[in-house]
Amino acid sequence: MMRRTFIATALAALGLGQAPKATQAKSCDFDICRTDAEWRGMLTSAQYKVMRKEGTERAFTSPLNDEKRAGVYHCRGCDLPLYNAATKYDSGTGWPSFYQPLTNAIGTKKDRKLLALRTEVHCRRCGSHLGHVFNDGPPPTGKRHCLNGVSLVFRPS
User: Fold this and answer.
1) Are residues 108 and 122 in the same domain?
2) Tens digit of pLDDT for each residue in 79-138?
3) Which residue out of 75, 123, 126, 146 is catalytically annotated?
4) Any catalytic annotation for residue 146?
5) Which among 93, 92, 86, 96 is positioned nearest to 153, based on CA atoms?
6) In angstroms, rounded to a whole number, what is the distance separating the alpha carbons of residues 19 and 58?
7) What is the C-alpha to C-alpha distance for residues 35 and 56, in angstroms, rounded to an integer?
8) pTM summary value
9) Same domain for 3 and 42?
10) Rounded-to-integer distance, Cα 69 and Cα 71, Å
């Protein structure tokens, strides 16, 4: 029976079969955990695709790309403050870009989905996908946190 459970779990991880009921609940390594149904209930389909399935919104579609006011950008999934507007800049890419996150706001992981190795950025509290970080940003960090506007909520100060 252990071998059958192992094989079913491995196939499910690859998207090739049904996991046994005991393994169907996804473990959560974040402070805020929600079921898939809860996420779907609180997010639009576009937000869900980006934040929970690591999708990307189309460039130049987010109103936050043109936001210029002072304030703080928060995670749409859990309202954690992520980026101060003072670190936002126009990267010309079509997505809101920042050169530095707030302290203890984000997490990162390796992303190999597009053949090249990238660094994915997510909310450290709820795990929502925010975007990617690149090494072509302005001083003082040289980083470009290229984010999906649908993952963010702007709170003016």
Assistant:
1) yes
2) 999 999 999 999 999 999 999 999 999 999 887 776 778 899 999 999 999 999 999 999
3) 146
4) yes
5) 96
6) 33
7) 22
8) 0.81
9) no
10) 6
